[in-house]
């Protein structure tokens, strides 16, 4: 490990050494002479030239300054990554054209009576239990897009749910492509049930 040393007592052959671990250590050096006192040894570790005088205090200050600079560079790098990822996810969220909501937020959204509730599961799943007021159009059917665009008004927000959140996102993408304003239940009907929300059965 490179180190910076200042000769403190050449008569006894002693160097006072500043190491990376940030402590001062006395080490013997058999080749020292009286003329060496106050000079530095192996100062390249912190960027000093061979002719610079290096005291323990200046070593300490330079080491701390170097560490601070490295720490700041790391923080800047991490913040840049976070900013980049946030922008990426934000762009992705905007590009998909619809909003994915938690069960609580979905419940608040559909409390607006102008919002149309759409369940895109199968008829059998729908009959076993669904969100009150929802209509059923199976997204897995080949005529889903045709039925949906013929049934749903574009002047109103469409709130979509399926069983786990996968089919609802597919349906939301189809509806968004057709000019609808769409929100979807991110965790699906399963998440709605787990949150203790109201359901009804046919």
Describe the overall structure.
This protein has 202 residues and is of the alpha/beta class. Helices cover 41% and strands 17% of the residues. The chain contains six helices and nine strands, in the order ββββαβαβαβαβαβα. The strands form two sheets. Strands 5-9-8-6-7 form a five-stranded parallel sheet. Helix 3 (123-128) links the parallel strand 6 and strand 7 (135-136). The termini are far apart. Residues 7-34, 40-56 and 90-94 have low confidence and may be disordered.
Short description:
41% of the residues lie in helices and 17% in strands.
Number of separate helices: 6
User: What does the main sheet amount to?
Assistant: 5 strands, parallel
Please count the beta strands (DSSP E, at least 2 residues each): 9
Strand order of the biggest β-sheet: 5-9-8-6-7
The average pLDDT value, as a whole number, equals 76
């Amino acid at each position: 490990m490179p180190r910076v040393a200042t000769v403190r007592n050449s008569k006894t052959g002693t160097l006072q050494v500043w190491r990376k671990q940030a402590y001062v250590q006395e080490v013997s050096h058999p080749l020292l002479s009286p003329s060496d006192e106050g000079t530095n040894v192996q100062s390249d570790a912190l960027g000093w030239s061979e002719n610079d005088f290096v005291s323990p205090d200046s070593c300490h200050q330079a080491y701390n300054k170097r560490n601070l600079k490295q720490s700041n560079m790391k923080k800047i790098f991490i913040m840049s990554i976070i900013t980049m990822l946030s922008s990426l996810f934000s762009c992705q969220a905007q590009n998909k054209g619809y909003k994915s909501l938690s069960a609580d937020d979905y419940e608040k959204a559909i409390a607006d009576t102008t919002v149309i509730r759409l369940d895109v599961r199968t008829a059998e799943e729908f009959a076993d239990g669904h969100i009150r007021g929802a209509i059923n159009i199976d997204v897995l059917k080949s005529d889903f897009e045709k039925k949906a665009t013929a049934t749903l008004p574009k002047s109103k927000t469409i709130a979509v749910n399926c069983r786990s959140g996968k089919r609802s996102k597919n349906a939301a993408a189809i509806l968004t492509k057709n000019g609808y304003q769409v929100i979807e239940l991110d965790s699906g009907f399963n998440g709605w049930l787990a949150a203790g929300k109201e359901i009804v059965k046919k």
